[in-house]
Design brief:
61% of the residues lie in helices and 3% in strands. By secondary structure, it is mainly alpha-helical.
Length: 427
Amino acid sequence: MDTIASLFSFITTPVSWVIVQFHSVYGKIFGPDTGWAWGLSIVSLVILIRICLIPLFVKQIKATRAMQTLQPEMKKIQERYKSDKQRQSEEMMKLYKETGTNPLSSCLPILAQSPFFFALYHVLNGIATGKTIGVIDDQLLASARKAHIFGAPLAAKFTDSADKVAQLGATLTDVRVVTAIMIVMMSASQFYTQRQLMTKNVDTTVKTPFMQQQKMLMYVFPVMFAVFGINFPVGVLVYWLTTNVWTMGQQMYVIHNNPTPGSKAQAAYLERLTKHVTHHGKTRRRSERTIIKAIVTKGRDRNEFERKFINALNKAGLAAQTDGTVVQSDNAAAAQTVAEDGTPTTGAAAPKRQQPKRQSKSQRQSGTAKPAGSGTPTSLSKSDEPEDAKPESAAKKTTSQPGSGSRSKAQSGQRKGPQRPKSPSKK
């Protein structure tokens, strides 16, 4: 570990300078030789570093979501070229290039923290061995060696011997109890952060090897922290515990306000957003407008939770706009909703087509019909007679002709009946 830390010695001086500056501030409050002054200096160093790494954290979120989107395509490539590993790697790199994604982007915050981590380890190791390093002179070195956090010196380790711990002015029991508690807290915070990501902020509609890999890391990382933590000084444990707590809080904020599409966190967020928008009739924050704009832009590609959100707004008489705003709908009754398959359907208040009523058997036999909406029966008039009927055959008009009966029955809705009479033959 000393060899690795020495590789980052170029950043040791800036890290030691930042710690000394924070120590000069906290030393005036808690005393220069107290563990609070030196411990809070390390905590402030972590906060400063993580604030500077926020842009990398945003890139990490985008890269992780892009990788989740590509998982189905990656799985197809693996199955297609499972016997040719070289071709499989080439197709993967081609896919990354076409989509503009980088698998290493999700590791950027950890990689960016490594120089500061090893530089801090190098500084604390110098304090433990009594060597000045960076801007820490003999006076600051003596002050740091006196600093204890709950009875454990900053430079003490879990694996240190009793004699070495005694030289730092502490007992082996105090050091091991404090370091054990901090290692457990560090591993627990890492496990909770990864578990929160897997259970709430992962697209549940996509089952890919990437999810299995993340689930495995949920158990591997805490074990790694527990194994390597016994070799870390107390000051490094303070650093790593602080950065884990920061990561956990930062991820909770992202899950609550900008969840992954298709995840359980998105369902909970859209439910809260629905209540907020329907109560106020508009969006208040820029983040809300950004998410609504993304949902409207998707169109038919919306997932189940997003379709429910649009339907809930339409039922409340609201309409989501392409710029992310929400306005009152002019015709809420005729507002469109989105079905489960993504197709738009008209509202429940739209008028339905009425089918004509089926007539009874007696009405069909008597030759009378009741039109819809009228209570008076109708009968055939003289206009129903054939136009070629001769005027001199008056007696034939009064008697029922073969064609008239069949025609009246056909108009009254009878499906079967006598055929149309043939024209009279010429003599």
